[in-house]
Amino acid sequence: MVITAAASYTKPMTLMTTYDDAAIERLIDRAADRVEKRMDKRFAVAEKRLDKKLADSAVTTQKSINEAIERTVGFYHEEMEHDIGLVLEATGFIKTRLDDMVTRDKFNDLFTEVKTIRRVVTDTNKDLRGHDRRITTLEKTIIHD
């Protein structure tokens, strides 16, 4: 196949060139190579722009994440302070109650004192019964004599 084309696009066609199939293939290959190089350059520029936008986006996203983390940590910090305050208040109350309660040693001492008082009362009651019997006997003796 033979194609005829103009040598220049700006000048009026005066010279005609004839191309054979091999020449057309070379022209197409060169044109394809030039297009490929242009596209590679444009892709490289676009890739750089995209990388910059991604980097900017990553920085912005990281800042947003850091701010969210700070807010969350602040919230939980306040919650924990409140909870710790409640625990301290409760343990203070418990400590006060425990300080007011009788210790085991004091209880044992009190138990020993109660035992002693019981013995004394029991002995006193025995003495009273004995006195009561003696008085009754004396009364009978005095009244019947």
Report the radius of gyration as a whole number of Å: 57 Å
* Major beta sheet summary: 2 strands, antiparallel
Strand order of the largest sheet: 1-2
Structure class: mainly alpha
**Oligomerization:** single chain
- Rounded to the nearest angstrom, the distance between the terminal CA atoms is 176 Å
Poorly predicted regions are none
Kindly state the percentage of residues in helix: over 70%
Give me some keywords for this one.
83% helix; mainly alpha; rod-shaped; 2 helices; single chain; two-stranded antiparallel ribbon
How is this structure best described in words?
Helix content is 83%, strand content 6%. The protein is mainly α and 145 residues long. The protein has a two-stranded antiparallel ribbon. The longest helix has 80 residues, at 21-100. The radius of gyration is 57 Å and the shape is rod-shaped. It starts with a strand and ends with a helix. The model has no long low-confidence stretch (mean pLDDT 82).
Summarize the structure.
This protein is mainly alpha-helical. It is built from two helices and two strands; from the N terminus they run ββαα.
Set out the fold topology.
Elements: E1 3-6, E2 16-19, H1 21-100, H2 104-144
Antiparallel strand pairs: 1-2
